[in-house]
Amino acid sequence: MERKIVIPGDVVSDNIKMSGSGTYVHGDEVRASVYGLLNIGERYISVIPLAGKYIPHASDRVIGIITEVVYSNWIVDINSPYEGLLHISQYPRRIDAENMSRYLKVGDSILTMVASVDAGMKVELTLREKELRVLSNGRIVMINPTKMPRVIGRNGSMIRLLKSEIGCNMFVGQNGRIWINGSDDCVDLAIQTVRYIEDNAHTPGLTERVQAFLKAKEKTRYGRVHESRNDEE
Amino acid sequence: MSEKPEHFIVDGKRLDGRSVNELRPVKIELSPLDRADGSCYLEWGRNKIMAAVYGPRELHPRHRQNMTKAVVQYRYNMAAFSVDERIRPGHSRRSIEISKVGRDAFEYVIFTKFFPKTAIDIFIEVLQADAGTRTAGINAASLALADAGIPMRGLVSACAVGKVDGEIVLDLMKEEDNFGEADVPIAMTAGGKITHLQMDGNLTKEEFYEALKLAKIGCDKVYKLQRQALIEKYSKECAGNGEDASPEPEGDADE
């Protein structure tokens, strides 16, 4: 589906009840507030931005990196203008405030969830949820957070494709960080594919294209194996 | 410095051959800077301007944070080599003033309420100056903001009007600026809301309204160029990556 490109101030609808994200109401018109692609839904008209920062919302799953350990809290970089706070009570086990950095030290990565965000943009994180944990292996790649939905795909179709085709474990954080774990070759391929998705994020038929991309990669991969065998002979 | 010419307008043509309601040629390049969140390089006649936008990002020092909205920081700076006679690098009385009015031109249009406690930093670097750098800077900043994905009510377009040889003209060039009778830089949104207006020199009330009308025409032209630049950037991106496109377009992905 070809989407129309809009710039801030463009009138996108005259029904103010349709105003969705990336739009604002001016008088009796809905206008775009960001530079991006117009998305006309059944109930809302929204604009998908082409750039922007990650702004945390409650129940977002994100990948964070510890930047500081303070009394009873870890301060976590969540790739956002706002820092995350992980309270000691949100660690999966009961631990002593005296030796917090035994469990999580500066530079450690965690797979975490935004528990709450208050009006002052204090972001509270938690590790007390299924799937959430401290990351001890794998690699993290960063992409533009606005392109995250494409890596996930509709109802997770893209991420399922990546996991099954490449055969590695992946977790996509809402904040633009992606954790990938598997053999070195798999992770390399996964990173290349993620970059491909990022570069082609706003083109139609992306899932098919990624399939084609992976198929092409597979050929060269096997081709290389084949060549090296020939060398041995 | 060049001498004052005897006449600014001869047979309806100005010193550089433009008519009274014509802009200088404009060239726009979007996202020339990789590390900035949004950027724009703008050539406006002989002006060369680089604009970069960072943010929303954490604001330091903390006490300057606003609990209800983002703080817009605008820095206008002229490179030492941007004019004939080398200027002392760093802030000057003039650059502080232009930074202040530039910031004010954008505070109204940016949805600062969406990003409490953060800063949105706009940097304008004048690489070559030839009159009208503050308006060119505002135009470039407006595009860089859009490029950074910052929510705004609309783009801001700016141009100057002035008076030379007793006539109201659009977009003053160096000689007209230096020796003309008035210089009025104006910035407005596409809807005609004025976010910036200064006046150097004297105009009568009638002349001022005429100038305002002319500025509206100029800003409309600038707006069209800005709009075109943004749309072209996107289509270029699609074309650049689309050479291996699969023929069947289908609405997949994203919620």
Task: Describe the secondary structure blueprint for this structure.
The complex is a heterodimer of chains A (233) and B (255).
Chain A (H helix, E strand, L loop, with lengths): L4 E2 L4 E3 L9 E4 L2 E4 L3 E5 L4 E5 L11 E10 L2 E5 L6 E4 L21 E9 L5 E4 L6 E3 L3 E4 L5 H5 L4 H10 L2 E4 L4 E5 L2 H16 L6 H27 L1
Parallel strand pairs in A: 9-11
Antiparallel strand pairs in A: 1-5, 2-4, 3-4, 5-6, 7-8, 7-10, 8-9, 10-11, 10-12, 13-15, 14-15
Helix pairs in contact in A: 3-4
Chain B lengths: L8 E2 L2 E2 L11 E5 L7 E7 L2 E12 L12 E8 L14 H15 L10 E11 L4 H15 L8 E9 L2 E4 L3 H6 L2 E8 L4 E4 L2 E2 L3 H37 L14
Parallel strand pairs in B: 6-7
Antiparallel strand pairs in B: 1-2, 3-4, 4-5, 5-7, 8-9, 8-10, 10-11, 10-12
Helix pairs in contact in B: 1-2
Protein model, in words:
The complex is a heterodimer of chains A (233) and B (255). By secondary structure, chain A is an alpha+beta fold. Chain A has 3 domains: 45 residues, RNA polymerase II/Efflux pump adaptor protein, barrel-sandwich hybrid domain (OB fold (Dihydrolipoamide Acetyltransferase, E2P)); 75 residues, Beta Barrel (OB fold (Dihydrolipoamide Acetyltransferase, E2P)); 84 residues, 2-Layer Sandwich (Ribosomal Protein S8, Chain: A, domain 1), CATH 3.30.1370.10. Helix content of chain A is 25%, strand content 30%. In chain A, the strands form 4 sheets. In chain A, strands 7-8-9-11-10 form a 5-stranded mixed barrel. A 3-stranded antiparallel beta sheet of chain A has the order 1-5-6, with no helix packed on it. A 3-stranded antiparallel beta sheet of chain A has the order 2-4-3, with no helix packed on it. In chain A, a hairpin with a 6-residue loop joins β8 and β9. In chain A, α3 runs antiparallel to α4. The mean pLDDT of chain A is 89. By secondary structure, chain B is an alpha+beta fold. Chain B has one domain: GHMP Kinase, N-terminal domain (Ribosomal Protein S5, domain 2). Chain B is 29% helix and 29% strand. Chain B has 4 helices and 12 strands; from the N terminus they run ββββββαβαββαβββα. In chain B, β4 and β5 form a beta hairpin. Chain B is globular, with a radius of gyration of 20 Å. At the A-B interface, α1 and α4 of A face β5 and α4 of B.
